Fold:
Amino acid sequence: MMIRGCATGAVVLTLLGVGAAIGDAQTGPPAPSVVLDSVAGRDNFERYCASCHGRGGRGDGPVASALRARPADLTTLARRNEGFQRESVRAYVTGADRNPDAHGSEAMPVWGPIFRGLDPSDLRTTQRIDNIVSFIESLQGPSTAASDLGSQLFRTHCATCHGPSGRGGGPMADQLRRMPPDLTQYTARNGGVFPSERVQRIIDGRDVPSHGDREMPVWGDAFQAVRGGTSEQAVKARIDAIVRYLAGIQERAASLDTLRPGHL
Ligand code: HEC
Ligand code: HEC
Structure:
């Protein structure tokens, strides 16, 4: 295990919300012995991951400095891997794809067996891990790489009206009664904060009262209808990816802090 010394180990255990299960210091990171009733992603991330990765996922949790391997910054996974690779993140977290000999690091607990040991329900364990992965996805900073999902969706569905740069004036723009607005000014107009939740709601459109003359498609419905129906989670993931893309193309860059949960 990569934690230096027993005293630090005890700190980690306390921060993980661990009761009695202080194992052999040579067998890997401590396994928490207390299961959280909630399977919500944020709750579980805060309980089981934030001590090392930090509440915002940036690798700056309270015990990070006591570890020999720095906990990864989980907010840059999408940027570092050409989009958020949900399946490989999941496999890494559960340990399905990890071979400690090959990677030479045992600092990151293998969560699959830990969660299964804590909660006998396979269904809840699967949900817990899926929700944690979704929460990590929600932490991703803006990404504008061409291969990024948000960028691809924007080119496919939005650029016809809003233009390839998001500034308006796409090829369909002059057939509309209203000019599609410039989407790169939110942060500038909003005191340096990108209003993620508002933009998300506008794009989704399903809970925005209809005035009957909206020219912008209701993307919550449109994405749901793709190929005969998509899950609500998939619809949300697409809209989130677009919102992250828009956050990334703002003319005035927002400070990264304002893009963390609560805002994003
Ligand atoms: C005891 C500290 C610790 C805890 C608790 C912890 N991690 Fe980690 N995690 C690490 C370290 C250290 C690394 C970097 C491992 C390496 O470099 O080999 C890491 C790496 C990762 C990575 C890989 C990131 C990348 O860059 O590919 C993911 C994903 C991850 N952790 C998710 C989680 C999740 C989800 C939880 C909670 C269920 C969690 N971690 C709890 C220490 C921790
Ligand atoms: C058919 C043309 C068209 C397409 C395609 C389109 N929009 Fe729009 N959009 C508009 C128009 C026009 C408006 C102005 C409001 C209205 O008339 O509905 C607008 C408004 C918006 C707004 C609100 C702007 C503000 O002033 O706050 C956002 C955000 C937005 N669009 C994002 C998107 C995204 C993201 C996509 C792709 C998923 C998209 N739009 C696709 C035409 C379009």
Remarks:
- The domain at 149-259 is CATH 1.10.760 (Cytochrome Bc1 Complex; Chain D, domain 2).
